[in-house]
Amino acid sequence: MNIPPFPSDPADVAAITEWLMCIESTSGNEIALVSALHDALIAREWAVTLIPVAAGRCDLLATSGSGPFVTLSTHLDTVPPFIRPTRDATRIYGRGACDAKGIAASMLSAAERLRSDNISIALLFVVGEETAHDGAHAADVWRSRTGFRSRALVNGEPTENTLALGTKGAMRLVMRTTGEAAHSAYPQFGRSATHALVHLLAELDTVSLPKDDQLGDTTINIGWLSGGVADNVTAPSAEARLMARLVTPADTVWDILNDWVRGRADLERGIEVPPVRLGTLPGFATSVVAYATDIPALPSWGTPYLFGPGSIHVAHGADESIEVADLHAAIGAYERIVRELSR
Predict the structure, then answer these.
(1) Residues 84 and 138 in one domain
(2) Do residues 19 and 141 share a domain?
(3) What are phi and psi of 37, to 5 degrees?
(4) CA-CA distances (angstroms) from residue 26 to 4, 95, 161, 165, 169?
């Protein structure tokens, strides 16, 4: 891969964003970007540590000062497919523009300002956020083992430059039904698992799920369906993969769903992330976000805050983009947050 030089001006947040975006880093394939950023920060005389995550995969921690640190953190991985950056007069387009390479660029520019004023600052860039949060888990184990002094964690996700009051949690579920194969011309001699699954899922909107005054409603997305062997055979098996967005502990929703299913299907729990209440600061607009973040996997890094430029509504899409003006606004906001938390 032909990687261009890192931008020489640390205040040129648009150029840094495009540099980060031009290096493909879909989840599991982050090493090229981590290596390039490692070399760039070493050249800028940051103290840089690589935190092992898995074979060929690392998080990156860069520090300036003696601590204790306020840590600015976001993720370097993106969802597929890789979309190269393009730019017009006001906006940058492409994969990672707002989720979360533009955020990483704003953090880098803010951190350069802060270290020029001799304020202790840490940058933690993790991998795997879009899949299993394994980079964040590895970073938390590393911090606990080393005693690295982080007093607060400012996580970066697209919150439209607001401080989030909280985030919903998430729970992955698999629902499976079983049937009996038979010739579809004589369905009375078989039992269709797909028929049972579709009828069961049609009831999902009638299930009473928890609500929270701050975080809102529990929601469940039917993300993936499969089943059957052929058009002319009653399906012997079928399954649906679901994603619940949580405003209560996962056990609460799990018990509700089991009571609803009542043995009509098998339910399996997958990866879970709890809902989180977050820190706020005077003078910042606030919001509540429905998506999950790395914050629950980083509990030892200090009081958590969530802030970032860009909108989640264009993240993961073919039209992902971010306003350059929002990137510049985020620099000042991150600088202000760190100064406030460093007092």
Answers:
(1) yes
(2) yes
(3) -70, -40
(4) 19, 9, 25, 29, 23
If asked whether residues 74 and 139 sit together in one domain, one would say yes
Query: Any idea which residues carry the catalytic annotation?
Result: 129
Stated pTM of the model: 0.88
**What residues make up the domain containing 255?**
169-273
Contacts of 58 (CB under 8 A, 6+ apart): 31, 34, 50, 51, 52, 127
Going by the DSSP 8-state scheme, the letter that residue 112 receives in this structure is H
**142 and 184 assigned to the same domain:** no
Bridge partner residues of 26 (DSSP):
78
118/220 same-domain check: no
Nearest 5°: CA angle at 33, between 10 and 93? 70
What is the mean pLDDT of each successive set of 10 residues along the chain, which is 343 residues long?
A: 92 98 98 98 98 97 97 98 97 98 98 97 98 96 98 98 95 97 96 97 97 95 97 97 96 98 96 92 94 94 98 97 98 98 94
Which residue among 273, 296, 328 closes a domain? 273
Q: Can you tell me which residue has the tokens 């469940």? A: 220
Dihedral sign of CA atoms 168, 171, 172, 175 in order = negative
Structural domains in the chain (count)? 2
